[in-house]
Amino acid sequence: MLYFSTDNNSPKVDFKEATIKGQAPDKGLYFPEKIPALDKNFIDHIHQYSKEEIAFKVIQPYVGDVIPNAELARIVAETINFDFPLIKVDEAIFSLELFHGPTLAFKDVGARFMSRCLGYFVKDSNKKIIVLVATSGDTGGAVANGFYNVDGVDVVILYPSGKVSKVQELQLTTLGKNIRALEIDGTFDDCQQMVKQAFADEVLNKKLFLTSANSINVARWLPQQFYYFFAYQQWKDKNNPPVISVPSGNFGNICAGLLAFRTGLPVSHFVAACNANNVITEYLQSGDYVPKKSIATLSNAMDVGNPSNFVRILELFDKEFQSLKNVMSSYSFSDDETKNILKEVYQNKNYLLDPHGAVGYVALKKYLDQHPHHRGIFLETAHPVKFYDVVEPIIHAKVPVPDVVNNLLALKKESIKMNAEYESLKEYLLTH
Ligand SMILES: *Cc1c(COP(=O)(O)O)cnc(C)c1O
Predict the structure, then answer these.
(1) How far, in whole angstroms, is CA 247 from its chain's centroid?
(2) Which of 131, 205, 304, 346 has the fewest C-beta atoms lying within 10 Å of its C-beta?
(3) Residues with C-beta less than 6 Å from any ligand 1 atom
(4) Which amino acids are annotated catalytic?
């Protein structure tokens, strides 16, 4: 499998190069040249396969021969060695819980897969790779955890000071060793901009071997398809495939679902669930894509004003607006609406949402209200304890704290404070 750049101005590369480079030299995103078609027989008999077999079948065509099958099978098995339960919330709505991994958010899947692939690729090289990543919250922890102690890889994480939750901050500032956290006096968009500039800086890239672990990296994006298949495997009503609602920020997660759909996974419709950062919601209404500055909300991992994966979504639908609209809708919700639904679902359905899942839930509900013959799944992208400071005042109760989080709360944060100027980042990278 080869990957082209969405800007069409870079040579095609294989999975290994796409993973190591992160972004194409022309600043486009890598995209698979052909979308594989999954065997219909496999889909029809998906209940007969283990989740390791499903994941392997899904990812193998994208990796090709750059990782031997036995090695890939090991990487896949390690990536998904936790549960992905589909939980019934009411007759029409199910929660796909993606928070049973080590950092309690769905990003563990992409980060674990990517770190293991990159670890494999650099095994025999004597050059050290620096993974440079901007996080709006959950990426940092997942990447830090995934790459912790991986030989030959250093990780530098940029996060917006004061704009991530306490648990999130501790997850990315307490590991040490090959993981370093830069606390940026700015927004997530500033962090992302600084990282993008570093990748575009030819002088810097001559001296250092940089790669990205943001959701633009194919090795993070592609494995996110796995749990859409796991959801379908657990879906009972195969004659009426689920509507799937995805709490969206950079749109990597939903874009993986759309890719799975294009390869043959049965899905009735996708709902892109957004907070006040509604660039895509507005795009689907007007046909005009107008990036904005990000707005801080309760669902902070979705505070993105210019979603990177938008270009991939266009690519998936051959840039045809109407085909995209037939498959995907989008709604945007305020923090007040998020709080109300979180409280209502807790009280009436006895299910505790996190703020991101709450946006996913309410968006699904809105779609199902207009399409009552359907039922659906929302992705519960993080454990509510990651956002206990937001959740507890809403439900007037304590969120049960898992042991992993208790251990974390006892650790001391270690970050390097930095202003939101690219030059500061550059100097840091060149001198450390
Ligand atoms: C990252 C994140 C999102 C947004 O996912 P994208 O792939 O950026 O759209 C949603 N919820 C949580 C909890 C996240 O960490």
Answers:
(1) 10
(2) 205
(3) 105, 107, 137-138, 215, 247-253, 301-302, 356, 381-382
(4) 107
